[in-house]
From TrEMBL:
Monomer. It comes from Flavobacterium sedimenticola. Pfam families: Aldose_epim (PF01263). It is an enzyme of class 5 (isomerase). Its EC number is 5.1.3.3. This is Aldose 1-epimerase. Its cofactor is Ca(2+).
Length: 348
C-alpha cells in the first residue's frame, strides 16, 4: 500500500483509517478540536473537509457541512451527472476556463476539457481526486493539519511542476483558517478554492430561509454556459444584491466581486449559528447545490438535493487568463501563490 501520511508507526488518537483507493492508496481522517468543543474533520483524499461540528451552549453539536461517511462515496461522486466536489480542495484552476484554453507568454495552452468544450475545476482528474501527503497532524500545541500535493508538469496540460500546500487551523475562537500556498517550476496559472457546502441548521436540512449577505456591488456577467464575458453586472436593484440580509436563493451559480476582506455572512435561525467568511481573494463564487441525484447517500444516510447546501468559493475570477482586465491568475516561475480564507463561527 502507498503511504500518504506521516504517522505510520505512531498513530494519533485524532487519526482514523478512512479507506483505500482503487490504486491501494491509504486515506485517513484527521480531526481538529478546540477548547470550545468545535470539531473539524479532514481526509487526505482531495484534502477534503468531511465535517464541521459546532457546539451550542448546551454542548449539542451541529454538523454544518455536507459530506459522506465512506471514501467510496467521495470517489463515486465524481461520476455523478454533475460532480458536487463536497468539501474538496479545487485546483489547479477553480471555476471555468473558456474553450479549455488560454495564452501564456504568447503560446496557446490547450487544457483538457471536462465541461462540454470548456474546463472546470482543474480538468478530468483535478486536485479534488488526488491523495494528498500529510506533512503535519494536530497536536496538543496546535490544532492544525498540513497537506501537500505535487502536480507534475503537464498534468491536465497545465505547464510547470506545481507544489501545493493547504493548511487547516482551528482556533479557540471557532475560526477555521484555510491557507493555500503554491510554487511552480515554470510560468503557469493557479486558482485554488475550498469547496465545502454549508448548511448552518445541519447537513440534513434545507438552506431555504437561512440568511446570507455578500459584500459586493458587482458580479461577473456570464454566458448561458456560465463562462464570463468580461463584463460586470451592477447589483443595484438586482435579485442577487445581498448587501443587506436576504434568504438564501434556491438557484445561484455566480461570481461576486468583493468590496472588502469580509466576503459574506450566513445565519441559521434554527441553530442560531452565524458564519462569517473572510478572505484575501478578489472574488467569491456562490453556488447552491449538493445534489447526489438519488445515487449516493450523504452522511447518516442523508439524501442530498439541489438546495442541501451553499458554497462560498473564495478565489480569483473564473476564466481570468482570458481577460486581461481581470486580476492576473499567472504564477511566475519560482514565485509564491498565497491564499488565506477564514470561516468564523458564532453562536448568537
Amino acid at each position: 500500500m502507498f503511504k500518504n501520511h506521516i504517522s505510520q508507526n505512531n498513530p494519533s488518537l485524532n487519526e482514523k483509517f478512512f479507506g483505500l483507493t482503487p490504486e491501494n492508496q491509504e486515506v485517513f481522517c484527521y480531526t481538529l478540536t478546540n477548547k470550545q468543543g468545535m470539531e473539524v474533520s479532514v481526509i487526505n483524499y482531495g484534502a477534503t473537509i468531511t465535517s464541521i461540528k459546532i457546539p451550542n451552549s448546551n454542548g449539542i453539536k451541529t454538523d454544518v457541512v455536507l459530506g459522506f461517511d465512506k471514501l467510496e462515496s467521495y470517489i463515486n461522486s465524481f461520476n455523478l451527472p454533475s460532480a458536487p466536489y463536497l468539501g474538496a480542495v479545487v485546483g489547479r484552476y477553480a471555476g471555468r476556463i473558456n474553450n479549455a484554453s488560454f495564452i501564456l507568454n504568447g503560446e496557446k495552452i490547450q487544457l483538457t476539457s471536462n465541461h462540454n468544450r470548456h474546463q472546470i475545476h482543474g480538468g478530468s482528474v483535478g486536485f479534488s481526486q488526488k491523495v494528498w501527503t500529510v506533512k503535519s497532524i494536530p497536536s496538543e500545541e496546535t490544532q492544525s493539519i498540513i497537506l501537500e500535493y505535487l502536480s507534475v508538469d503537464n498534468e491536465e496540460n497545465f505547464p510547470g511542476e506545481l507544489s501545493v500546500r493547504v493548511t487547516y487551523t482551528l482556533t479557540d475562537q471557532n475560526e477555521l483558517k484555510v491557507e493555500f500556498s503554491a510554487k511552480s517550476t515554470e510560468d503557469t496559472i493557479v486558482n485554488l478554492t475550498q469547496h465545502s457546502y454549508f448548511n448552518l441548521n445541519g447537513h440534513q436540512e434545507n438552506i431555504n430561509h437561512q440568511k446570507i449577505t455578500i459584500n459586493a456591488d458587482t458580479m461577473l456577467e456570464t454566458t448561458e454556459e456560465l463562462i464570463p464575458t468580461g463584463k460586470f453586472i451592477s447589483l443595484k436593484n438586482h435579485d442577487y444584491d445581498f448587501s443587506t440580509t436576504k434568504d438564501c436563493p434556491a438557484i445561484i451559480d455566480n461570481t461576486f466581486v468583493l468590496n472588502d476582506t469580509k466576503a459574506a455572512t450566513m445565519y441559521g435561525e434554527k441553530s442560531k449559528i452565524k458564519m462569517t467568511v473572510i478572505t484575501n481573494q478578489p472574488a467569491v463564487h456562490v453556488y447552491v447545490g449538493g445534489n447526489c441525484f438519488d445515487q449516493i447517500k450523504g452522511k447518516e444516510a442523508t439524501e442530498y438535493h439541489k438546495t442541501s447546501g451553499i458554497c462560498f468559493e473564495t478565489q480569483n475570477f473564473p476564466d481570468a487568463p482570458n481577460h486581461s482586465h481581470f486580476p492576473t491568475a499567472v504564477l511566475g516561475k519560482n514565485e509564491w501563490y498565497s491564499h488565506q480564507t477564514i470561516f468564523k463561527f458564532e453562536n448568537l
